[in-house]
Design brief:
This protein has 4 helices and 30 strands. By secondary structure, the protein is mainly β.
Length: 451
């Protein structure tokens, strides 16, 4: 019987091709499906006392091979690795910035140790972003971030409030030592480091030395070097200690302003600064005035115990030609008995008849008393001594006037002796504005006296 379905050459060829294609399909595997990587949760919350918090990274299918996932950290919480001296809020356990996922696994974990610091800071955040993966068949999900919120377990009332005990202080140059007190609302829970800045018209010694004006410095900070003060754990007060210089300059009253600018995380500072007014000290003023003719004069004061040889005591030798030279003998020196000498020095000029005067007055409680004594004289060009050679050669300035102090009272003010020639120079310094202002006040007083 004939086969009703004879196999033709064409059918046989197709069958062979079909078998061949089927064999090829069985030998070649399907392309590996791509996996997607994401965070298990978009937000995570944990208290400061939670210890270790786990943030899971998940794949939507098992890993086809070992992989390493890279991530970055941001947010308001402080990472211990990058704290740089600040109080850390958390620490990554294991490799920082990397998570390993083994072949066949569907997740990896970032383990975070939360730090409880005992200080109120408010809630803080750790923002974690998936950055990269080191295999080709894994995609990072479009939403590739999660936010970990660290819930502060301290009450806001636990913050240490720090403020100045007084925001306005009045003192004087002759007080010398001044403590600016800081009050804490509660004992410091840890060692605190505060920063502060200095401002005002008074010149602190650090700035003065840096600007080659150390002789004009008004005060220096005894502690808190570099604008930083440390408050030890358990303390309820602290001080910024100042030393006020007693000097021989008659100056305007000056100010020192101290502002707290930053604080440790366990404390909050009051933004109101403290302003310290430093009043001019009381004392005996000797002022040299001369005609405004372009001449420059200097003033040298001598002193000694009664009956002893006079020695150089103070000098005022600024570089102006239209302002007086002034020295104040501070009462704080407590010299009950002393002999004094005055050398008015014609430093430079072209005036052959230079009229000048030396005024003596008492300065007390911010003003001059009515005890001004004035002595006048005249120099010629023969009295100019303005070369350093004459100083190194040993020439001694003439003591042109003398006066005494006995039992705390100044008196016996002599007239002014004018040498035949020479008067000798001391040194030249630029005068600050506040030195000039108060000297001008005495100058006006002298003019009124002369009238």
């Amino acid at each position: 019987m004939r086969n009703p379905y004879p196999i033709t050459k064409s059918l046989l060829a197709l069958a062979i091709v079909g078998v061949s294609l089927s064999a090829c399909k069985d030998d070649d595997s399907e392309p590996t499906p791509r996996a997607t990587l994401s965070f298990e949760k978009s937000t995570v919350s944990a208290g400061e006392g939670s210890g270790v918090v786990t943030v899971n990274i998940v794949l939507d299918r098992g890993a086809a091979e070992d992989m390493t996932v890279s991530y970055t950290l941001a947010g308001t919480a402080v990472d211990k690795l990058t704290a740089a001296g600040a109080a850390a809020d958390y620490e990554i356990i294991g490799d920082h910035g990397e998570v390993d996922i083994k072949k066949g696994e569907t997740s990896g974990a970032i383990e975070i140790q939360i730090v409880s610091d005992g200080a109120y800071e408010g809630n803080e955040t750790i923002d974690i972003t998936l950055d990269d993966v080191d295999v080709d068949n894994v995609d990072i999900a479009e939403n590739n971030t999660t936010k970990v919120t660290i819930l502060d377990d301290e009450d806001e009332g636990d913050v240490v409030q720090i403020s100045f005990d007084e925001t306005s202080i009045v003192t004087s140059e002759d007080v010398t030592e001044l403590s600016v007190v800081l009050n804490l609302s509660k004992p410091a829970p840890e060692r605190l480091v505060l920063n502060y800045t200095l401002d005002g018209s008074a010149l602190d010694s650090l700035f003065a030395f840096e600007n080659d004006a150390s002789f004009l410095a008004d005060y220096y900070v005894v502690n808190g070097e570099g604008g930083e003060i440390v408050i030890e754990k358990g303390a309820t007060t602290a001080t910024i200690d100042l030393f006020i210089y007693t000097d021989i300059f008659l100056e305007d009253d000056e100010t020192i302003e101290i502002s707290l600018t930053s604080n440790s995380v366990a404390a909050a500072v009051d933004q109101e600064p403290v302003e310290i007014q430093v009043n001019q000290q009381d004392g005996r003023v000797i002022q040299l005035e001369w005609e405004d003719s372009g001449a420059d004069m200097d003033l040298l004061l001598w002193a000694a115990d009664p009956g002893e040889d006079l020695k150089r005591f103070f000098s005022s030798a600024f570089g102006f030609t239209d302002r007086p030279e002034t020295i104040i003998i501070p009462d704080v020196l407590e010299l009950p008995d002393a002999d004094f000498g005055v050398s008015p020095i014609y430093f430079s000029g072209t005036d052959n008849e230079l009229n000048f005067l030396v005024a003596h007055a008492t300065f007390a409680d911010g003003d001059f008393l009515d005890d001004v004594t004035v002595k006048e004289a005249k120099y010629t060009l023969n009295n100019i001594n303005n070369t350093w050679d004459q100083q190194t050669g040993g020439q001694i300035p003439l003591v042109a006037q003398t006066f005494t102090k006995r039992d705390g009272v100044y008196g016996n003010i002599s007239g002014i002796t004018v040498a035949g020639e020479g008067s000798r120079r001391t040194s030249t310094k630029p005068a600050p504005a506040d030195v000039r202002h108060r000297s001008a006040r005495l100058q006006n007083t002298v003019r009124s006296f002369n009238r």
